[in-house]
Design brief:
This is AB hydrolase-1 domain-containing protein. Pfam families: Abhydrolase_1. InterPro entries: AB_hydrolase_1, AB_hydrolase_fold. By secondary structure, the protein is of the alpha/beta class. It has a single domain, classed as Rossmann fold (3-Layer(aba) Sandwich), CATH 3.40.50.1820. The chain has 15 helices and eight strands. Strands 1-2-4-3-5-6-7-8 form an eight-stranded mixed sheet, sandwiched between helices. Helix 1 runs antiparallel to helix 2 and helix 4 packs across helix 5. It starts with a helix and ends in a 22-residue tail after the last helix.
């Protein structure tokens, strides 16, 4: 009974996004009206899309899951990083690992949808969001995986589902390689592992233009990139969202862009945002993955997703060598931001992927965190 309404609502979202996108890109409206339209888009799209996602996957009511803004917050002091995380929901644990330049806000739509059936844990990776900066600028996949392992240990979780995106994929795969018993099933989106295809994406090509992957090459030298981005974070991040998405400016609402920009503008956080892109980081990651999964492919069920305007064309090259039980799929009407651009489809697809593997994984209960002192 709820799915048709969810589909209708999602259809309304798509139509409105299309109208706003066309208005912005073709100057149908005068410049003085654009800001008003974008504000309307921000308010309507985020709230309506959240409802549509929940209804589309068959949720009877979203009342039991708080809105993203009302999710509980936690913080844990790990070996050398203070990690912030959000959590909500009930059921087996699901760890969501974001990429760069975003932080846990990546999951503002997908998280509430998945929290109907899972206990969702959404950390901010080291140097992003409300987590602390990493010592000696260490943003390697292996170190980020150690953070995730420490968080799960603190939460008394010994097995979890994992869904990761962009640079978070490196951390998630490293976690699965180091501690395969921790990961029940692993889904990844919009990334290529160093040593397994990333190099082809950051190497300049003869046909590159403004819509190419030039920022990967640029950001590989953080000192230079920081020099030219400082004071222009909104312009750079705005263009990144625009040119790597399926439908341009309508893909990411202004409120989410503002939160990402505000986070990166904190002292030291522009450099930390660039850290995972550094050539030295990529070299360390390639060495790690070649010494682990190249020798011993991941044993757990594995799903690789790519947006049709993102990594879809190379999915079958990227992921089969990584594991022994690999499937891939294309996210329709999405570019580099599947959780933003088509969250309903992603929620349905990863639910379908995880469901056969729920046997043997315990329900997570994080109620003990309420008013719990966790830093001392």
């Amino acid at each position: 009974i709820y799915k048709p309404f969810g589909l209708w609502t999602l259809g309304l979202v798509v139509i409105i996004k299309h109208i706003v996108s066309k208005a912005i890109h073709t100057n149908i409206f005068q410049r003085r009206y654009i800001q008003t339209i974008q504000i309307f888009h921000t308010i309507l799209i985020d709230n309506t899309a959240s409802l549509a996602v929940a209804l589309f996957i068959g949720v009877a009511t979203a009342a039991s899951v708080p809105a993203w803004e009302d999710w509980a917050h936690g913080r844990v002091q790990l070996k050398n990083v203070s990690m912030h995380f959000r959590y909500a929901g009930s059921g087996p644990p699901l760890l969501l690992v974001h990429g760069n330049p975003q932080h846990s806000i990546t999951w503002r739509l997908l998280g509430p949808a998945m929290a109907e059936n899972y206990t969702v844990i959404a950390p901010d990776n080291r140097g992003m969001g409300d987590s602390s900066l990493a010592p000696i600028s260490d943003y390697t996949a292996a170190s980020m995986a150690s953070d995730l392992e420490g968080l799960l240990s603190f939460l008394n979780i010994n097995k979890t589902f994992v869904f990761s995106y962009d640079k978070g994929v490196g951390a998630a795969v490293a976690l699965a390689a180091k501690k395969p018993s921790l990961v029940q099933a692993l889904a990844v989106s919009e990334y290529a592992l160093p040593g397994f295809g990333y190099e082809s994406l950051w190497t300049p090509q003869y046909d590159w233009d403004a819509y190419g992957n030039w920022e990967l090459a640029w950001w590989s030298v953080p000192e230079a990139a920081e020099r030219f981005i400082q004071g222009r974070v909104r312009e750079v991040i705005g263009w990144f969202f625009y040119h790597t998405s399926y439908s341009g400016a309508s893909s990411i609402p202004l409120s989410a862009v503002d939160e990402v920009v505000d986070s990166i503008n904190k002292p030291g956080f522009l450099r930390s945002m660039l850290g995972p892109f550094a050539a030295s980081t990529m070299g360390a990651d390639a060495a790690f993955f070649n010494s682990t999964i190249r020798q011993h492919p991941l044993p757990m069920p594995f799903l690789g997703l790519g947006g049709e305007a993102g990594t879809a064309a190379i999915l079958h090259e990227l992921w089969p060598p990584v594991g022994t039980s690999v499937e891939v799929d294309i996210v329709p009407k999405a570019g580099h931001f599947p959780a933003d651009e088509n969250p309903a489809w992603v929620a349905q697809r990863i639910n379908k992927f995880y469901n056969p593997h729920k046997k043997g994984i315990s329900t997570a209960d994080l109620s003990w965190l309420t008013d719990k002192v966790t830093l001392v």
